[in-house]
Amino acid sequence: MENVLRPVIVVGGSVVLTLLIGWSVDRLLRRADDRHSEPSLWGLLRRGRVPFQLVLFAALLRGSYDQARLLVEHRVGIGRTLTLILIGAAAWLVVSIATAVVETSYSRYANAHRDPARIRRVRTQVTLIQRVVTAVVGVVAAAAMLLTFPAMRAAGASLLASAGVLGIVAGVAAQSTLANLFAGLQIAFGDMVRLGDTVVVDGEWGTVEEITLTFLTVRTWDERRITMPVSYFTSKPFENWSRGTPQMTGIVFLHLDHSAPVEAMRGKLRDILRECPAWDGRDHGLAVTDSTPNTMQVRALVTAKDADDIWTVRVTVREQLIRWLAEQHPYALPRVNTAEAALPRQNPRPDRAEPNAAAARANHAHHPHEPPRTGPGRA
Q1: Positive or negative torsion for Cα 354, 357, 358, 359
Q2: Over the stretch 217-259, which tens digit does the pLDDT of each residue have?
């Protein structure tokens, strides 16, 4: 009877104590969270109640398992399994607590400040800090699990003896990875690029969607994802349209005929912008910036509060100006001359050249606005 009750008491007592302590802690956290209207640290800590109960159960059962006298021949293996569960659950609990602290700090900062650029910078930093903490805790937990095996202890001692050689080899082999790792930390705390920034890399315009310790993801306007190593942003130039203020100036180029009504176009541009909600009203202008033998280049300058609105203003101005020119001033659009070139006239008899010249001069006298058909330089 004692052999049956002893395991039941040990295992059952561990389960009951785990549930009782877990329920009490969760109730205390819930009461503390109810006192705050906004999301607080106590409410986020409740996410770790599962790893907390697992740590409690593994610790209680690991400490009292010898008293149960259950499966004595497998005592070493069961004890090592409980130790591994305890280490893994403890690492899970530490990561959950760190995540709750980081998210609470970011939420408080975002509620206290209204500057979007500073909020994105802090969000980038806390995200990378959370990833670093998770990676460090995972590595330490994995090392602790390996050291529970006697064979791995001997291997660890031999590895520590040759740590200098291994460090050199690992540094050479992982040079690119380490470069990206330090580049990620430089981006996080150097405020070079942040989550949500509008950037242009390799001619592609998009928004920074994800930043890790090794790579960065840019979501383009057509929903594509460009994944790039973070070392790219520390070694090559790129455009960050969200740096400083998000206000932007856009340009619309039009190639028109030389007879285009520039003054009327300035008035039409003003009317278009007044009806465009995306225009912020800061500035606008229209000027002729270049000329070719066939066309002239007209530049319309517009402003908007951010990159998305400047795109809307540019396409609106371009569409409505071209439509207005096509309807009201079609002659202002570029034209291509498709008439056939006139062939030079031949004189079969040289002695008839003088009479023909006289006749041409007489014809020009009657039609003074018409160029003579013969003479020097004319066929």
Answers
A1: positive
A2: 888 888 888 888 877 777 788 888 777 677 888 899 999 999 8
What gap in Å lies between CA 121 and CA 260, rounded to an integer? 48
Give the three-class secondary structure for 110.
helix
Q: How far apart are CA 290 and CA 33, in angstroms?
A: 66
Residues 6+ apart with CB under 8 A from 63: none
Rounded Cα gap, residues 178 and 144, in angstroms: 24
> Is the confidence at residue 35, as pLDDT, over 60?
yes
Report the distance separating Cα 212 and Cα 21, nearest Å: 37
- How far apart CA 165 and CA 158 sit, in angstroms, is 12
**pTM score of the predicted model:** 0.45
Sign of the C-alpha dihedral computed for residues 184, 186, 191 and 192 taken in this order:
negative
Give, as one character, the DSSP assignment of residue 336: -
CA atoms within 13 A on the CB side of 339: 5
Give the position of tokens 């090559």: 236
CA 216 to chain centre: 7
The answer to whether the CB of 250 falls within 8 A of the CB of 280 is no
Nearest to 57 by CA among 36, 29, 88, 98: 88
Within the chain, strands assigned E span 198-201, 204-211, 215-220, 225-229, 239-240, 248-256, 279-291, 296-304
The DSSP secondary-structure symbol of 35 reads: T
Q: Rounded to 5 degrees, what are φ and ψ at 328?
A: -100, -35
Backbone angles phi, psi at 149, to 5 degrees: -95, 130
The token pair at 303 is: 């402003």
Q: Residue 207: what residue type? A: T
Taking only the tens place, the pLDDT of each residue in 38-95 is 666 676 777 777 888 888 888 877 766 666 566 656 667 777 788 888 888 888 888 8
Query: How many Cα atoms within 13 Å fall on the side-chain side of residue 65?
Result: 21
